[in-house]
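Thread: "does anyone have the structure for this chain?"

Original post by V.I.:
We have the sequence but no experimental structure in hand. Need at least a predicted one for the grant figures.
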Amino acid sequence: MTEARKKWMILIVVAALSLVADQATKIWARHSLPVIGHGSNNGQCVIPEDIAAVPPMCGGQAVKVIDGYWDWRLSMNHGSAFGLFANSPGVARVFLSLVGIGAVIAMLFMLKKSRDDQRILHYALALVVGGAIGNLLDRMYFGVVTDFVLWHYHAKEWPVFNVADVVLVVGVGLMFIDIQKEKNRDKRSKKEISADRDDKARKAGLVKDLRE
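Reply from O.Q.:
Generated one for you, tokens below.
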């Protein structure tokens, strides 16, 4: 396999694994986590419709993982990652779906333009693609995104999130690492060019060698 093809293989494998992990855990959350409230089906909650209703007819009931810090709690998010823009469900579904599609296209374009040796960037882009598609499928099919991971410090809660959100954050973090790595690479390249230019100038007698 050529180096140029490896980055596309990384994209396919990493994005697919991320997508499977995300969708499998969301299916588990929708079918296994308890809910409370009076739903539309003879008092039974219909998931995700009754939780996604405005106002919601049902809500997720917390299941402790680490007492005081980590719970499972089913939630339907009309907005984007970590519950952002959740108060505008109608516009958010269309707008954020378009943003998701645009993000995937942008990542594919960046991967095409990337160098073969930028492995960190390749993994970063693959993770972002997998995470973006995971939430995009939810939003296009259900109109909402399934969230179920709740981190909190006693009563102070972090917005509920899912595996796709985690994958997106890791991918963006790796992109910043790649940016820093490229900056360091450019600095080394400039120093090498400058040293080479000075060496040629000394050999040509244009610059006095102070080491003599």
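V.I.: this helps a lot. The radius of gyration is 24 Å.
O.Q.: and Helices lie at 3-32, 49-52, 89-113, 119-142, 163-203.
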